[in-house]
Amino acid sequence: MASMLDKLRRDAEALVQARHPAPRSVLGYHEFPRNGGDDPVCMVRVLEPDAVAVFVLSDNDEANGTPLAPVHPAGLFEGRVPYRRPVHPYRLRVRYR
Question: Tens digit of pLDDT per residue, the chain (97 long)?
């Protein structure tokens, strides 16, 4: 687990310094398989400089959305979102300073 956290820290630093070689491999919607055939863990990561809060809006919860947690002070946020098929584009609500 520590190596995964270390990789996220390195990726975060590279993203906020605009030197990550493949930013879309980190940012956006990603699915991570689970053992046992269960639905995958679904994550969204976004880089929104000057944001104080970011929410992923879904069709059935336009008012609130799923909050993303800040993971870097330069505006990197991430969070789990519900698994759904078919995959739909997501929208963000961002609150800035």
Answer: 557 778 888 998 999 899 999 999 999 999 988 888 788 989 999 999 999 999 999 776 667 789 999 999 999 999 999 888 777 788 999 999 8
Nearest to 95 by CA among 48, 46, 44: 48
Provide the sign of the torsion angle of the four alpha carbons 72, 77, 33, 20, taken in this order. Answer: negative
Q: Name which of 57, 59, 45, 50 is nearest 93 in CA terms.
A: 57
Instruction: Measure the CA angle with vertex 6, ends 70 and 72; round to 5°.
Output: 20
Q: Which two tokens stand for residue 93?
A: 């609500």
Contact between 96 and 46 (Cβ < 8 Å):
no
Q: Where are the alpha helices (DSSP H) in the chain?
A: 2-16
Looking at the whole model, is its pTM more than 0.70?
yes
